[in-house]
Design a protein that fits this description.
Helix content: 55-70%
Structural class: mainly alpha
Strand content: 5-15%
Largest sheet: 3 strands, antiparallel
Distance between the termini: 71 Å
Strand order of the largest sheet: 1-3-2
Order of helices and strands: HHHHEHHEE
Number of helices: 6
């Protein structure tokens, strides 16, 4: 063991009395030292914890990128109806948006805002969030925005057909 340092510790009287009963007089310093060392070994080092967190985030990003590549190459197949589209929803509003898109296959933000009786900017932000989250987790977005005309709608959001049962 390397150089020893002297410290003083204030402990409750009950703890001191218990230690006096259980630990012989010449062994108390060793007991306290061992208790501190044991406790320190169980406590993670903050820099190691931060490093592990960063490595995990990096791995998640790389895994997400691999899923995206596989989806682009169409090697990652999705069984129709096997993906829970509501898994990307955070609250009831998101669930209603997804339900509407599943039912009508697509919608513009003003249509959704009118149906849900809310602000279209809120709807737009929710759609973007769902798109981004699903893209990150699946490698392919469950909804997409198409600015051109499709089935009589311009500038609308469409549910990705490969994720829903027909």
């Amino acid at each position: 063991m390397n150089e020893l340092r002297v410290i003083s510790v204030k402990i409750p009287d009950e703890v001191y009395k218990e230690m006096v009963l259980r630990v012989p007089e010449g062994e108390r310093s060793n007991f306290i030292r061992d208790a501190i060392i044991e406790k320190l070994q169980k406590t993670p080092k903050p820099d190691k914890l931060l490093e592990m967190e960063q490595r995990l985030e990096k791995l998640e990003a790389e895994f997400s990128q691999m899923r995206k590549y596989l989806a682009d190459l169409e090697l990652l197949a999705y069984d129709k109806g096997k993906i829970d589209l509501h898994a990307f929803c955070t609250d009831e509003l998101d669930h209603k948006i997804i339900d509407y898109l599943i039912h009508y296959k697509g919608a513009t933000t003003p249509e959704l805002a009118e149906y849900l009786k809310t602000n279209r900017w809120l709807i737009l932000n929710r759609l973007r969030k769902i798109e981004k989250t699903s893209q990150k987790q699946l490698g392919k977005s469950i909804i997409t925005y198409y600015p051109g005309e499709k089935i009589g709608k311009k500038k609308a959001w469409w549910i990705n057909e490969e994720f829903i049962e027909t």
